[in-house]
Amino acid sequence: MINTPIAALTASDLDALVTNKVAEGRHLEFKRDLPGTSEKDKIELCADVPSLANTGGGYLLFGVDDSDSTASAVPGLPGVNIDHEIRRLEQTLGSGIDPPVQGITTRSIPTSAGGDVIAVRVPRSWRAPHLVKHNDSFRVYVRASKGKQLLDAREVRRVFESAGDVVGAIRRWRDDRLAKILADDTPVRLKVGAKMVLHIVPLESIDDPYRFTASEIADRRREFGRLGFGGRGERINLDGYLTSAPPIASGRLVNGEVEGSYGQVFRSGRFEGVRSESVTYGHEDRFIASHGYEKRVLEATAGSIRTLTGLGVSFPIVVMLSFLGSQGVSLLIKHDDEDSDDQPIDRDVVVLPDVVLEEEPTDLPRALRPIFDAVWNACGLPASQNYDEQGNWARGELPGVPMSRVE
Q: What secondary structure does DSSP assign to 165-183, as a single string?
């Protein structure tokens, strides 16, 4: 159940907790009743959620009874105004935890007994440790096999250090993947030349490198064609599921021994997209289409988010963009049908600042702008020119990419 998306939970999943005698643990806690309204009750609730976020994420289930920490019945919460109680829970959690835990999702699930269970899905947090406010002091909790555990000063220091290790581990994985691509150690043979590499990494993927089967990923294949990295040739491989597409010449796909791009969805829930055709070759110069590459990254990121959340992956999700073989490459900028170019990139490997999406974005172009601005910085320009003065995406609608405008 721990890996089941909250939107997919059913009464059968809840009944299975009792049938299978599932016990509370590091990622699961049962609550027969909702918390009261006293200050003590609020602190207790605020301790439950950070303990999960600080450890690895998991579920709080209100309306599930237990005996010696093992699920014994699912009576639900009969006679309760569910919508009101969900709002109360969310308000309490929003004010009693520092820093706030991002990405918490809550929903009610009708039970076979008639009442509803309120499920609270808490993601693993990259901003751990989260502290519980208690009078004029703060406390730090984590999950243990028998429930939450209050940490002492030495243990708090260790949690701070391990939180930094999570982001560092993701970046080290990215660096290792880039080294493999540079060494031509890729799942398909790519066309020679500069490459754009997109990595999309859910934070929770660090816990289990084999969370999904290849078949589970393949069931989401309808989304792969929208990732912009392959989508024509598809197959299961050892790492998960691979899509690839041949190179393009004169507007047509050229089938041969090499591919122009590939997209790899790993069994951990991570995505790697590599394009060997993001750089255009002129008579003597090499260019990146300043609008085209940003459009492709936005579409691929939106498609990846749909694919990964469909698999049950939770936020935060880290987005990372790199260019390989990029020394001497310039941006190709079009204004009023007049072409202009800028200073060429001065290094062969460009690793751009990563962006952490703490929750599902409502304006993806705005969220990813720091990455795009850094590309323009690498070419001697202050910021991406594909946005207006208010920071809105200014290059037309992108189907499937969430956007909102600021006037």
A: HHHHHHHHHHHHHHHHHHT
CA distance 390 to 380: 22
Give the Cα separation of 99 and 97 in Å (integer): 6
Residues in Cβ contact with 96 at an 8 Å cutoff, skipping those fewer than 6 apart: 42, 43, 45, 46, 132, 133
What is the share, in percent, of the chain residues with pLDDT greater than 70?
83
> What pLDDT score does 249 carry?
59
Helix (H, G, I), strand (E, B) or coil at 106: strand
- Single out the residue of 288, 165, 304 nearest to residue 243, CA to CA: 304
Q: Return the closest-CA partner of residue 271 out of 332, 179, 377, 200.
A: 200
Record the tokens describing residue 161, joined without a space. Answer: 């250090």
Model confidence at 303: pLDDT above 80: yes
DSSP annotation string for 36-99: -SSHHHHHHHHHHHHHHHTTT-EEEEET-EEETTEEEE----TT--HHHHHHHHHHHHHHSEES
The tokens for 58 are 């998991």
* 277 has a pLDDT exceeding 80: no
pLDDT value of residue 147: 64
Given a cut of 70, is residue 297 above it in pLDDT? Answer: yes
CB 178 within 8 A of CB 352: no
3-state secondary structure of 285: coil
Domains and CATH numbers, the chain: 6-151 (3.30.950.30), 163-378 (no CATH)
Q: How does pLDDT run across 140-188, given as a tens digit for each residue?
A: 777 666 667 666 666 666 666 666 677 788 999 999 999 999 999 999 9
